[in-house]
């Protein structure tokens, strides 16, 4: 499959977007419920998000080749979108980690905790904005489109909210606060399908003297269909969990199916890389 050579970036972008989406859902729940025991459960589950984000950053470092390159990239914060992405990602990780640590230790005053939660959520959204902007390169016509933006932001909901739902939904009465997630994921999947159909038609119009965009991913339609089959199965698992909250296997299957689906979609995205003209700056 064309695009597998960028597997570290596939893992990084999908995991980062998933974690930010899940963190936003966690924040909604924490602002909604006052049940002390459920809040403690939510804070414990938050460690999974931090661990996944850590794995994502490790994957991105393997792409750069050395941790020092990531630090060197920070020298151009404000000038380079890649530097901005790394900086905002690190800040999100730090803010989320600080919030989690103080919450677990029960050393977090309510007002300050809410402030920190809002700051971390806002930084997560800024991180996602910077990640999207990294790929809007004028010399890469297959990326410099609204389809890139749609794809990245939809993953935040599809994978992020599915991950959050899998971690948060339980037999506790307070867990009903996330009962709307399966419906949202279903609607988002429909939107994603419409976007992919339009993108498929748009790719046929991207042609240079050297290559055609459609030739880069000849299996675009087949793999996209597989992606949505996996998403459909994941949605079925989500609705099953809605009625059987104790079914941890269904939760795990839903999360793994969505991750697999979004990684297929992201691999197709990287496989579409093609250039025209000359890049100026970085």
From TrEMBL:
<dbReference type="GO" id="GO:0009389">
    <property type="term" value="F:dimethyl sulfoxide reductase activity"/>
</dbReference>
<keyword id="KW-1133">Transmembrane helix</keyword>
<feature type="transmembrane region" description="Helical">
    <location>
        <begin position="112"/>
        <end position="130"/>
    </location>
</feature>
<dbReference type="InterPro" id="IPR007059">
    <property type="entry name" value="DmsC"/>
</dbReference>
<dbReference type="GO" id="GO:0019645">
    <property type="term" value="P:anaerobic electron transport chain"/>
</dbReference>
<keyword id="KW-0812">Transmembrane</keyword>
<feature type="transmembrane region" description="Helical">
    <location>
        <begin position="254"/>
        <end position="272"/>
    </location>
</feature>
<feature type="transmembrane region" description="Helical">
    <location>
        <begin position="180"/>
        <end position="201"/>
    </location>
</feature>
<dbReference type="GO" id="GO:0005886">
    <property type="term" value="C:plasma membrane"/>
</dbReference>
<feature type="transmembrane region" description="Helical">
    <location>
        <begin position="86"/>
        <end position="105"/>
    </location>
</feature>
<keyword id="KW-0472">Membrane</keyword>
<dbReference type="Pfam" id="PF04976">
    <property type="entry name" value="DmsC"/>
</dbReference>
<feature type="transmembrane region" description="Helical">
    <location>
        <begin position="12"/>
        <end position="33"/>
    </location>
</feature>
<feature type="transmembrane region" description="Helical">
    <location>
        <begin position="221"/>
        <end position="242"/>
    </location>
</feature>
<feature type="transmembrane region" description="Helical">
    <location>
        <begin position="45"/>
        <end position="66"/>
    </location>
</feature>
<dbReference type="GO" id="GO:0009390">
    <property type="term" value="C:dimethyl sulfoxide reductase complex"/>
</dbReference>
<protein>
    <submittedName>
        <fullName>DmsC</fullName>
    </submittedName>
</protein>
<feature type="transmembrane region" description="Helical">
    <location>
        <begin position="150"/>
        <end position="168"/>
    </location>
</feature>
């Amino acid at each position: 499959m064309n695009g597998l050579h960028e597997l570290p970036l596939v893992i990084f972008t999908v995991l980062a977007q998933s974690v930010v989406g899940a963190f936003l859902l966690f924040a909604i729940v924490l602002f909604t419920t006052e049940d002390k025991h459920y809040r403690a459960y939510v804070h414990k589950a938050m460690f999974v998000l931090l661990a996944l984000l850590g794995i994502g950053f490790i994957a991105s470092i393997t792409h750069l080749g050395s941790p020092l390159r990531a630090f060197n990239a920070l020298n151009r914060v404000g000038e380079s979108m890649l530097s901005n992405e790394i900086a905002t990602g690190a800040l999100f990780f730090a803010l989320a980690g600080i919030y989690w640590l103080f919450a677990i230790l029960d050393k977090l005053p309510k007002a300050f905790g809410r402030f920190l939660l809002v700051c971390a959520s806002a930084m997560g959204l800024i991180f996602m904005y910077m990640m999207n902007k990294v790929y809007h390169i004028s010399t890469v016509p297959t990326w410099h489109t609204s389809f890139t933006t749609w794809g990245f932001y939809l993953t935040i909901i599809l994978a992020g909210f599915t991950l959050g739902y899998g971690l948060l939904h339980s037999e506790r009465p307070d867990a009903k606060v996330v009962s709307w997630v399966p419906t949202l994921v279903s609607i988002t999947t429909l939107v994603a399908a419409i976007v992919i159909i339009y993108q498929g038609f748009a790719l046929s119009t991207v042609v240079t003297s050297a290559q055609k965009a459609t030739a880069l991913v000849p299996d675009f339609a087949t793999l996209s269909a597989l992606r949505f089959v996996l998403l459909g199965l994941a949605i079925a698992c989500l609705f099953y969990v809605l009625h059987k909250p104790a079914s941890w296997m269904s939760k795990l299957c839903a999360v793994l199916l969505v991750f697999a689906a979004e990684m297929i979609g992201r691999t197709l995205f990287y496989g579409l890389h093609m250039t025209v003209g000359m890049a100026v700056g970085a």
